[in-house]
Specification:
The chain is mostly helical. The chain is 25% helix and 2% strand. It is globular. Keywords: Signal.
């Protein structure tokens, strides 16, 4: 009986999360339900409840993952010691936004619809905010112009201690901000969450 109760609560929780995500995604740039290739679905271009393509099961990922090698951001003022090729959730974002994988390449299908315009960042990230580097107290102290990440609001997240695309952007648009941001950037508010200048 206890197992049935736990399973029922887990199912109710997952339905609640899905309905929350659906409400937030509906009408955003990540709502592909009107595209013929999405089968009228919102979630399946990225996630699959069963038989996902990611053997680790992370995020029940359903989309083909990019294998691109990127030109990285570099600056004499960038103090992160472990900056390397994008990984983690950033690689999942780039699987559509780097222009190497079609947005309709999911569920094992090879699509042909590519992101175009300014939403296609390409593989040269030399002029983009760096991602997939450790943002910790040591980096903030070494840099001198970064906020200690232990004091950041809950809306700005680190993933395994790393700054990722989803640290600033919310793919599900739960915060209802322009450009799917976690915090509005009027007056550079989002930037100034981490940067002191």
């Amino acid at each position: 009986m206890k197992k049935v109760l736990i399973a029922s609560l887990a199912l109710m929780g997952s339905i609640g999360l899905c309905s929350t995500a659906l409400g937030a995604i509906t009408g955003t740039a990540h709502d592909f339900s009107a595209s013929g290739w999405s089968q009228g679905q919102i979630c399946i271009p990225c996630h699959a409840p069963h038989n996902n393509n990611n053997t680790s099961g992370e995020l029940l990922w359903n989309h083909e993952v990019t294998t691109a090698t990127y030109t990285l951001y570099g600056s004499t003022t960038f103090d992160a010691v472990d900056a390397d090729q994008p990984g983690g959730v950033s690689k999942l974002c780039l699987s559509c936004h780097d222009g190497t994988v079609a947005i309709d390449s999911f569920g094992g299908a090879s699509g042909g619809t590519m992101i175009t315009g300014d939403r296609n960042f390409g593989i040269d990230m030399g002029n983009d905010h760096p991602v997939s580097f450790t943002y910790d107290t040591t980096l903030a102290t070494t840099d001198g112009y970064l906020v200690d990440p232990n004091t950041l609001p809950d809306t700005v997240k680190m993933f395994d201690g790393k700054m990722e695309c989803a640290s600033c952007h919310d793919v599900h648009n739960k915060h209802n901000q322009n450009a799917l941001l976690n915090i509005g950037n009027g007056g550079s508010a989002l930037c100034l969450t981490c940067h002191l200048k």
